[in-house]
Amino acid sequence: MENHQQELPQRTEALSGNFWKIHALGWLVYGITVTVAFAAMLPPDRSVWPLVRVKLIKIALGFLCSLALRPLYRRVWQRSNHAPVVALSALVGSSAVGLIWLTLYLTLNGKNPTDLPPGDIMDFIYIMFGWSCLYFLAKYWQKVQLERQRALIAEGLQQRAQLETLRYQLNPHFLFNALNSIRASIDEDPRRAKRLVTEFSDYLRYSLLTKDRPAIPLKEEIEAVQNYLAIEKIRFEDKLHVNVNVEQAAEDYPIPAFLVQPLVENSLKHGMSQSGLDLQLSARVSAGRLQLEVANTGHWATEIKNGIGLTNVRQRLAHLYGDRGQLNIREQNGWVRATIEIEPA
Predict the structure, then answer these.
(1) CA angle, 56 as apex, 135 and 111 as ends, to 5°?
(2) What is the DSSP string of 47-113?
(3) Which of 81, 84, 140, 325 is the most buried (most CB within 10 A)?
């Protein structure tokens, strides 16, 4: 898992390192192209070296001035990468830096703005605008690559979550208790035994058949959790009290499979006491944001915050949603509340 966590930062650093190579190569190619093109138009009796000197000054200044745009554009990109904001930033930035580039060029060559044709003056701005467009196109490409990598990592995490569910949650102890409860119910209450077999098979089916689905409606996850709790209720009898309150608007909200299950399993494992356990599962959608809460009576044990289930949930939220998905846990008035919030893209 550490390899997955380090892969995206390493890929981002690699893309950042490529900036300097591409930046230097771009200006070098531009400088050679422009110099050769102008040299070809010189009369045979004129030396090419004064032209080379002037172009070297122009390219060197352009190289340095365009670097000033990078931190500005990075801040713009971090705040908003919507096309209108990017386009306006490129227009304003390239115009301002283009004029600075022109001023430095004229100063070092001892020229006045009147010495240059209007088209040559605008050339400085056009070149900076072209540089700006290429910069933001590279940022968009980088964003697509990182999102693709994030999706691949999320898919791997989902598969791992399914394996962990089968390994840790459908462990031999749980299987033994479930089958033993069904066996005991056959003689005592055949109707209940039949219902338990149905719930157990539905839970197993859900565990096995969601592997090829990147997202499922929340109601399917809730049904699987309820089947799980119905079996556990046979084990704990009257000590376990469950209340499920899912608003209709939240039922079809897409989530990755096994996102809620680890929180419920964690509540049972660490919240059950001699006096029993009250467990509440609720979900609602507000302004497009899913708010899902698993709450149980008891106290928060700080040593379990890095447990397998909670760590897996946090990592999957981070890779699937970035900053738009969060897991928060708090203790309040004798209740431990684990809340998942997912914002729309």
Answers:
(1) 105
(2) -SHHHHHHHHHHHHHHHHHHHHHHHHHHHHHHH---HHHHHHHHHHHHHHHHHHHHHHHHHHTT--G
(3) 325
* pLDDT tens by residue, 280-304: 999 999 988 999 999 999 887 665 5
Tokens of 3: 């390899």
279 SS3 class = strand
- Say how far apart CA 22 and CA 66 lie, in whole Å: 13
**Predicted pLDDT at 162:** 61
**CA dihedral over 227, 228, 234, 239, signed as positive or negative:** negative
Assess contact for 69 and 135: CB atoms under 8 A: yes
The first and second tokens of residue 122, run together, are 């605008």
pTM (2 d.p.):
0.52
Question: Quick one: residue 46, left, alpha or beta (phi over 0 = left, psi -120 to 50 = alpha)?
Answer: beta
Residue whose token pair is 């006045």:
112
How far is the C-alpha of 76 from the C-alpha of 89, rounded, in Å? 8
Domain ranges of the chain: 2-149, 170-342
Q: Helix or strand or coil: residue 246?
A: strand
CA terminus-to-terminus distance, the chain: 26
**pLDDT at residue 44, rounded to an integer:** 78
Locate tokens 């079996």: which residue?
231
Q: What is the pLDDT of residues 64-107, one digit of tens each?
A: 999 989 889 888 888 887 888 888 998 999 999 999 998 898 88
Cα 161–Cα 164–Cα 169 angle in degrees, nearest 5: 115
Reported as a single tens digit per residue, the pLDDT across 155-201 is: 777 766 665 554 444 456 667 767 877 887 888 888 878 888 888 88
CATH assignment of 170-342, given 3.30.980.40, 3.30.70.270, 3.30.565.10, 3.40.50.2020? Answer: 3.30.565.10
Contact 290, 342 (CB under 8 A): yes
